[in-house]
Amino acid sequence: MSLALSSARSHPGKVRARNEDALLERAAEGLWAVADGMGGHQEGARASRLVVERLAELALGGSLDERLEQVRLVLHEVNRRLTQDLTVLADSAERLIGTTVVALLLADGEAACVWAGDSRAYLWRGNQLYQLTRDHSLLERLVEVEGLTPQQATRHPSARALTRALGAQDELALDIVRFELLAGDRLLLSSDGLHGALEERTLGAALSLPTPAVALERLLDGVLQGPARDNLTAIVIHPLEAA
């Protein structure tokens, strides 16, 4: 029996020929993930695909803590592969082959989100949208550490640069947030091609819709009606434990 109802989709957008995003949907086991690859040509797609392929192989079981540890170990393993094996095979020794990742786990009425990079997780609860993740980006650092306003930070030429990602450094630092599920909770995982193109009120309005499929359609349509310059990926999740 599935732990949640979910709907997932990835789209290349209107400009890029290749889709470097990848997604994983394992509703029966309570695991979902979005990865946004980087590296140009085929390498970004290869990196994001490696994440979801390895997570798809997991024989998930046990408590939320045990499942979270399984996912964490896989992400560290993928980071080693990206920083060592794949980078050596790249055309240039300076090329970074990496990927963001945001993964969501459900078990025993609880949820855990683990991430690196700027792919995000959102929670819709009590008609309020909450951003569960915090971007690992220069923009976020300029706001938090340097005290710039978001508007000032956005003007920095490298504002979109990531400060963490799988494949970016030998030692991977992951952030994790855990919380109890409540009745009516709705969850969204997305790459920056989706959430970067929509206002928060638009995200919330979509998540308030009755089914994951309808919410997902609203989100993607909202982006594709605009320039859609980036790949876009989204997964909408309605936990059954909280229903």
Strand content: 25-35%
- Overall number of strands: 10
CATH superfamily: PPM-type phosphatase domain
Oligomer: single chain
Q: Tell me the Rg in angstroms.
A: 17 Å
Report on this structure.
This protein is an alpha+beta fold. The chain has helices spanning 43-56, 64-89, 138-144, 150-154, 192-195, 200-207, 212-224; strands at 4-11, 21-26, 31-38, 98-107, 110-116, 120-125, 128-131, 175-180, 186-190, 232-239. The protein has one domain: PPM-type phosphatase domain (Phosphatase 2c, domain 1, 4-Layer Sandwich), CATH 3.60.40. The strands form two sheets. A five-stranded antiparallel beta sheet has the order 1-10-9-6-7. A five-stranded antiparallel beta sheet has the order 2-3-4-5-8, covered by helices on one side. The longest helix has 26 residues, at 64-89. The chain starts with a strand and ends with a strand.
Brief account:
This protein is an alpha+beta fold and 243 residues long. It has helices at residues 43-56, 64-89, 138-144, 150-154, 192-195, 200-207, 212-224; strands at 4-11, 21-26, 31-38, 98-107, 110-116, 120-125, 128-131, 175-180, 186-190, 232-239.
Key terms:
243 residues, 32% helix, 5-stranded antiparallel sheet, alpha+beta
Topology:
Layout (H helix, E strand, L loop, with lengths): L3 E8 L9 E6 L4 E8 L4 H14 L7 H26 L8 E10 L2 E7 L3 E6 L2 E4 L6 H7 L5 H5 L20 E6 L5 E5 L1 H4 L4 H8 L4 H13 L7 E8 L4
Antiparallel strand pairs: 1-10, 2-3, 3-4, 4-5, 5-8, 6-7, 6-9, 9-10
